[in-house]
Q: What sequence folds into this?
């Protein structure tokens, strides 16, 4: 058993990917050990602003899914994740130094802006790479079962990341699948 914490492993992954998050992304990055599975790998990470709330957020592409993390002092934690097979398109629009990323998922569009131009381009390339892979490319990485997702929700609640109400709401969503 490794004595290194999951937080340290995540920091190492980000360093290897040459990702240096700003001070503003610290809250979200501290939540990643509670969000990611033990063997889930970060492929790329960008930070920016949610276009609708103007909150500082991070978008994390892993070897399994795309995760949107918004940790606000007053509003708690908002985590949305999308399997690559559900993403119909991802694009970025650059202006001078910054860019915005639009991700089309089912009937929804996730938009973030204030992303570094180079980071936005690289992030979109990495996500498109996973979008283009057939499902059988991930033979040992099935979608997490409802039970796995419930266990993860339970851990988030135990760690104080989710309130009782948020836990119940997310649990209802999972069981209503």
A:
């Amino acid at each position: 058993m490794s004595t290194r914490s999951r937080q340290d492993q995540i920091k190492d992954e980000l360093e290897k990917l040459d990702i240096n998050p700003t001070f503003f992304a610290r809250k979200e990055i501290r939540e990643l050990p509670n969000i990611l599975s033990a063997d889930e790998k970060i492929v790329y990470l960008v930070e920016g602003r949610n276009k609708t709330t103007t909150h500082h957020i991070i978008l994390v592409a892993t070897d399994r899914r795309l995760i949107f993390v918004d940790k606000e002092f007053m509003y708690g934690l908002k985590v949305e994740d999308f399997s690559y097979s559900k993403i119909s398109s991802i694009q970025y629009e650059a202006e001078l130094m910054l860019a915005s990323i639009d991700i089309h998922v089912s009937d929804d569009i996730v938009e973030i802006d204030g992303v570094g131009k180079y980071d936005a381009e690289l992030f979109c390339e990495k996500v498109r790479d996973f979008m283009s892979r057939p499902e059988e490319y991930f033979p040992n990485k099935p979608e997490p079962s409802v039970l796995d997702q419930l266990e993860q929700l339970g851990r988030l609640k135990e760690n104080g990341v989710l309130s009782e109400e948020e836990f119940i709401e997310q649990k209802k969503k999972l069981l209503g699948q």
